[in-house]
Structure formats: structure tokens, C-alpha cells
Amino acid sequence: MLPLDPKRLLELLRIAQHGSFTGAAAALGVSQPALSNSIMVLERALGAPVLERHRRAAALTDLGRLLVSHAAAIESVLSRAREEVELKKRGLDGSLIIGVSPIACVDIVPDAIARLKRQTPDVAVLIHERPDDELIEALRSGEIDVMIGPTGLLTDPPDIEREVLETDAFTVIMRNRHSLARRRSVTLAQLRNATWVMPHEHSTMWRQIEALFVAENEPWPADCISTNSITALKSLLMRSDAVSISSPRLVAIELAALSLNASSRHCGRARGERATKVRRAPSQPLTPAVRR
After folding, report:
1. Is the whole model's pTM more than 0.70, yes or no?
2. At what angle do helices 62-89 and 6-18 cross, to 10 degrees?
3. Domain limits at 159?
4. Under DSSP, is residue 290 helix (H, G, I), strand (E, B) or coil?
5. Burial 223-239 (b: 16+ CB within 10 A, else e)
6. The total number of structural domains that make up the chain
7. 45 part of a folded domain
8. Which residue, among 173, 158, 166, has the nearest Cα to 266 in the 3D structure?
């Protein structure tokens, strides 16, 4: 087998992104025949097809999908290299890109970044908040350096290294003037007719709340507001008799100000706990900023 040309892998990535040779050729600034010929050279080197060619589109084969995942990693590495060069030209000492969940932004990440900046003030820091599935893929591709967030219901992929930082528990959250706010505990059955505010359905927290309802054999709330905004979730709770399930750490400021109440310690028999982890991909280089 001939050595793989990274340029051709990136061309394959563009075809996958645009779904056709024509769109990819326009994006790359080359002719469609030239791009087609380049992919044929790649396929001859591999001894197998990477694309299924149709009249107006092109679909990846299994081998093509494998190569595209590597091509995305190559593109991410090149992009980071360009960024590092620009940072160096501006007098900065590298970068650190972190993917987070909202709970990690309460204290873990701010405390760590504050210490890092005291030690190395010239490090550029970028923080992304995205759904867990997207962050895992960003770890693999090298788009982010580390991911900090709670454990999901599913086992972490084997290619991801993880370490538990701390654990916390779920509790029912409601405004301080709610009729149930003074109870030591409340069951999901007692909240069956309540208006609920839930995190977005693609989040880890949504899946864990769903598991609590399943464990209690309770139907999913009929009256439910869904949001991917923590600010909106907390504001809705403070301005109405809606309820939610969350970690007390996520609403620590509001609890201290007596705007919200978390006196209900558990949800019936279902006691939810989760661990917050730091995750990274061992396949990606451990830069000095990441190590610190």
C-alpha cells in the first residue's frame, strides 16, 4: 500500500461535508475532474473504494467513514497549529481549550482557570459549553483538550481517559415561596401535576432525570418546559411554581440568596448521584498548558 497523502484525506473530508464532488470542488477551489482524479488515486493506493458515486451525490463507504474521522483529526491539528502560531506571534504561551457542562462552570473550572492564570498568565483559555456527545467527538478530533462534566448513564468510550473529581446528589429545586418548599422530602408522585422545567433532551442531566422517573415508575411530566439555558431554567423556577431536579451546586448562589429552595433532599425511593469527571483523549498530545 502506498503512503496516504493527508491532502487527499482532507479532500475526502470536504466531499463528505458537501455530499458531492461538485460542492467539494467549489469549496476547495479546484475543478471537479481534478478532485475526482485525486480520490481515484487515493482508492488505488488503498486498494478499495472510499466513496459510492451516484449521479448527483457521493456517499462514504465504511472505509471512507473511517478515513474521514482521521481527516477531521488532521484538520483539527492543523487548525490548532495555526492558532498556536498566531498566539506565539502575539506573545502568548500556547492555549487551553476546555469543553464543559454547566455544573463544571459553577466552581471547578473557574477555580482551576484562576490558578492556571496566576501561574502562567500568558496562556490563552477558551471554554466551550456543548452537549456531551459533541464534546466527546471534539476530544477525539483534538478540537478541545479536556472535557469536564458529570458522568452519563452510559459507560465512557474505551478511547477516552477519565478521572473522577467529585460527586454530588440530585434534589428537587423550587422557589422559596412554593407550598412544598418546607418539606424535608417530596416524591415524584406528589409532583405529578406540577409544571416542570427540564434541561434539553440531549443533555446528560435530562437522561439522568428520565432514569429517576423510570425508577419511581412515574410517567414523564405532561406539563414540561424544556430549555438548554441554565439561566432560563433558574429564572423560570424563581418566577413561578414550576419545579425541577438538579444539583444544589448549580443553584448555590440562588439558594444563598433564598431565591430558590432545595430542602427536599431526595425524590422518593430514587436517590440520584453522579460523578463529575475530567476526560481527555490519550491519542492527543499533552501540552504544557493541559498538563498544568
Report:
1. no
2. 110
3. 92-165+276-291
4. helix
5. eeeeebebeebbebbbe
6. 3
7. yes
8. 173
